[in-house]
Amino acid sequence: MKKLALLAFCLNGVIAMAQMPNGGFGFGGNQASQxxxxxxxxxxDINYAGDNEAYHTLDIYLPKKQQEKYPVIVHIYGxxxxxxxxxxxxxxxxxxxxxxxxxYAVVTPNHRASTDAKxxxxxxxIKAVVRFVRANAEKYHLDPSFIGTSGxxxxxxxxxxxxxxxxxxxxxxxxxxxxxEGTVGQCGDYSSYVDACCxxxxxIDLLNMDCDGIEKPKxxxxxxxxxxxxxxxxxxxxxxxxxYYIDGDDVPIGVFHGSEDNVVPCCQGxxxxxxxxxxxxxxxxxxxxxxxxxxxxYTPENLKKMVEWFDAARAAKK
Length: 318
Known about the structure:
Shape: globular
Number of helices: 8
Number of strands: 12
Largest sheet: 8 strands, mixed
């Protein structure tokens, strides 16, 4: 059972890339949808780091409804951090389609895989994406006054880490120290601040992945991204966790998790919600009955709740 759980997490990444009905692709389960994402324009394969690496490219989708500029959601794919090239095939006809229909521009970035570079390379990349969006907002008809993050699985980890680490340059715990902001790209004069987050099925406390009482195997995806075992390196792992950075100044963060998730246990979402509540951060938690890791999660009700969450965050900021 332990080996199967790890295999499922890895297959959620780069191996189990299976074509779904209606022409959709997805990680971590059946993301088939009656909806097909509609957009007025797509800017593809834009390099946000200035290094000509495919893992540093992003796509920008603009809604069909014509506006002078659009609020932005950066949506990050799930892959157990094993994929560096999945920006075009994850959640396009579910999460991204709902955001586009609601009038949000959607930015889907690639980022370095754990086999390309160890943490914090992945969060450095997403910070660079947001800086690039701000620097090039006028060119791509984007509204830099509102940039939110969304993500599934390991993408949810990065999306929530973006939201809880706003303003953090260098993170320290004991002898561990990581440059969270990083220096990727050529837009260092711009802010990586994000305004709100919705995370779907994310691992947020990587020191506590057995919170469901089921012992997880060694050589896990989090040990691969860190390049070290958990035992004896707890301070370093704390700085990987989005839950570690939570404080009362955090932006609104919504949490979706399936009750039957056997890859990232539902107690991870519960931990996130509880910690956000205790800190006084605006939040919600949807524990989807029968929801798995990507299965039965993207209901019309949940997608509507996500859109309304971002809409409310925009209205509150104004």
